[in-house]
From TrEMBL:
GO terms for molecular function: efflux transmembrane transporter activity. The lineage of its organism: Bacteria, Pseudomonadati, Bacteroidota, Bacteroidia, Marinilabiliales. Belongs to the membrane fusion protein (MFP) (TC 8.A.1) family. Residues 131-179 form the CzcB-like alpha-helical hairpin domain. NCBIfam families: RND_mfp. Residues 21-58 form a coiled coil. One of its GO terms (cellular component) is efflux pump complex. InterPro entries: Beta-barrel_RND_2, HH_CzcB-like, RND_pump_MFP. Residues 220-291 form the CusB-like beta-barrel domain. This is Efflux RND transporter periplasmic adaptor subunit. Keywords: Coiled coil. PROSITE patterns: PROKAR_LIPOPROTEIN. It holds the Pfam family HH_CzcB.
Length: 373
């Protein structure tokens, strides 16, 4: 029974295979037919363009403006969004814990390094210091007496060393308490402006409690993320143009550094530009537009991007050419290498001295008689 079933399936498989082959052959023939039709269509279009030019435009010339193609400098820039930061922008937190007995500054006040910002209650600590000073004075007296006896060969060495050890221990403890007392006085670590005060007199302060914001923006920096595509094109030391739209301010500064690590989240690397800010008009967290040049060619064939058109064969422009004592528009296909700021750099298709139609190009076709204004 199984042999009969297999014998019945085999012809079906051959039939399907033959059918697929026929379909493939039929599609290939159809594709060849379409290509032939496309070729004929192009020839008909070209013929009609010529007939239109000879018929309707035989006596009427289209006024155009032209420019002689010369080499010029072409630059390409990338634009990224950056954020303003300040190295000297910190939140001050006391190193010791205690009740705030005074805040000696106001918001917006300029302070110098070492100026007192706030003081914590250290009365108990001061009592311990005073008590220890009394003990230290006694220990010093005992030590001096023991030292004189020891120099006179009176008394034991153990008594002398014990007195000396007590004196040194109390001195060390006093120094430690004095250091703790210094921690109760909060001072400015650098020159700057108290931008904000977070706590009030009478509140508890400590290492985990922000007390005030101190900022110095005489020098700031702008940092932005650049796609890894431009990693080899952007180098430290090259100039960058910065625009701050919110304050209507523009400036140029060299790139300070580029990061050595690619962010795996967005495949980018950081670029930092340091800025002097004498008028302090640039504020931290301000948005900046950074423009960085990634390509330049001093002698390039550059045309306005607007005159470049496109059809099914590619990009083309019209140039003016003399033919049979008349000026006509000639359609020339070009290869565009790069475009920026409404200008395009032509890689091939044009040569120096070509007359590029810059005005009236939308009113002509290949072979149109033109009149150069």
């Amino acid at each position: 029974m199984k042999k009969f079933i297999i014998a019945g399936i085999i012809p079906l498989l051959f039939a399907c295979s033959a059918k697929n082959a026929d379909e493939k052959k039929e599609k290939s023939e159809q594709l060849k037919e379409y290509k032939t039709e496309l070729k004929d269509l192009k020839e008909k279009i070209s013929k009609l363009e010529s007939e239109v030019n000879k018929g309707s435009q035989k006596e009427i010339a289209i006024n155009v403006n032209v420019e002689k193609l010369n080499t010029s400098k072409f630059e390409h820039f990338i634009q990224i969004t950056g954020n303003v930061e300040a190295d000297k922008n910190i939140t001050i937190q006391p190193e010791a814990s205690g009740n705030i007995i005074s805040i000696d500054v106001k918001e917006g006040q300029y302070v110098k390094k070492g100026d007192i910002i706030a003081q914590l209650n250290f009365s108990k600590l001061q009592n311990d210091i005073d008590e220890l000073k009394t003990q230290l004075a006694l220990s010093k007296t005992l030590f001096d007496r023991q030292e004189r006896l020891w120099n006179q060969k009176i008394g034991s060495e153990v008594e002398f060393l014990t007195a000396k050890s007590n004196l040194e221990a109390q001195r060390s403890r006093l120094n430690a308490l004095e250091s703790q007392k210094d921690l109760a006085i909060v001072r400015a670590p650098f020159d700057g402006i108290i931008d904000e005060i977070y706590q009030k007199k009478g509140e508890m302060a400590g290492p985990n409690s922000p007390l005030a914001q101190l900022v110095n923006i005489n020098r700031v920096y702008v940092e932005g993320d650049v796609s890894e595509t431009y990693l080899s094109a952007i180098k430290a030391g090259e100039n960058a143009d910065l625009d701050f739209p919110a304050i209507n301010y523009k400036t140029t500064a060299p790139i300070y550094r580029t990061s050595n690590v690619i962010d795996p989240a967005n495949r980018s690397f950081k670029v930092r530009v340091n800025l002097k800010n004498p008028g302090q008009i640039i504020k931290p967290n301000l948005i900046s537009i950074i423009k960085i040049r990634d390509f330049v060619q001093n002698e390039a064939l550059v045309v306005p991007s607007i005159i470049i058109k496109k059809d099914f064969e590619g990009n083309y422009i019209y140039i003016a050419e003399k033919q049979d004592k008349k000026m006509i528009a000639k359609k020339v296909y070009v290869s565009v290498s790069m475009t920026y700021n409404n200008l395009s750099m032509i890689e091939s298709g044009l040569k120096l001295g070509d007359l590029i139609i810059t005005e009236g190009f939308s009113q002509v076709v290949n072979g149109t008689i033109i009149n150069i204004k």
